[in-house]
Amino acid sequence: MDTQAHWEHIYETKSPEETSWYQPHLEISIDWISAAVKGLSSSIIDVGGGESTLADDLLAAGYRNLTVLDVAGAAIKKFQERLGPAAQSVHWLKGEVTTVALPAHAYDLWHDRAVFHFLTEPQRRVAYLRQLVSALKPGGQVVMATFGPQGPEKCSGLNTKRYDAESLHYELGPEFHLVRSSVAMHQTPMGTMQQFLYCQFSLNPVQEGSTP
Length: 212
Ligand SMILES: C[S@@+](CC[C@H](N)C(=O)[O-])C[C@H]1O[C@@H](n2cnc3c(N)ncnc32)[C@H](O)[C@@H]1O
Fold this sequence. Notes:
Helix content: 25-40%
CATH superfamily: Vaccinia Virus protein VP39
Number of strands: 9
Strand order of the largest sheet: 3-2-1-4-5-9-8
CATH topology: Rossmann fold
CATH architecture: 3-Layer(aba) Sandwich
Largest sheet: 7 strands, mixed
Bound molecules: S-adenosylmethionine
Radius of gyration: 16 Å
CATH class: Alpha Beta
């Protein structure tokens, strides 16, 4: 089953509370995003947003330039139904993060909770990085949550790659500056614990005189 078919099936057959990654509110993400961006008009993309409540909470906080990207149309549809009329205030993108057309240098902040760690093939991580660098504004911020060093080796039946702050920074490359990192335990709705790594990076601004 390909990536899209896998995730469409998940969202067609499970409620949010039946998924291991469900959290009523993504508190760490919200705190870090609020601290990382300059104001409520900052452009923020949530990559692999699924049915998370991040966009709901950011809209409630007054953010007005939000994009949610997901490979699963079923997730986007359920998300839009939940938001109701407020869904019109969000930009929706359905596609695979490694290949979908993204506007160039458009986002102040890129958020990814539990997507990058599914990219176990190096060439998909390279493609993801290409998208990230091209879509982020110079000096833009990244808030990323992956499984930590003691996190699960599989999620939703898919293999995952686990990271510490150093190895995640290595994947992103020297163009990124590690701003902060933290390991956090996530209690799944099934009662099990999963170790997550949260990292914030900033994309180095283009140096004057350097070639693009
Ligand atoms: C584990 S869920 C996390 C959902 C959400 N970020 C959260 O924290 O609740 C992973 C999400 O990423 C989406 N996804 C997985 N691989 C993707 C890819 N290559 N491109 C875009 N979305 C992807 C899935 O459809 C799913 O919604």
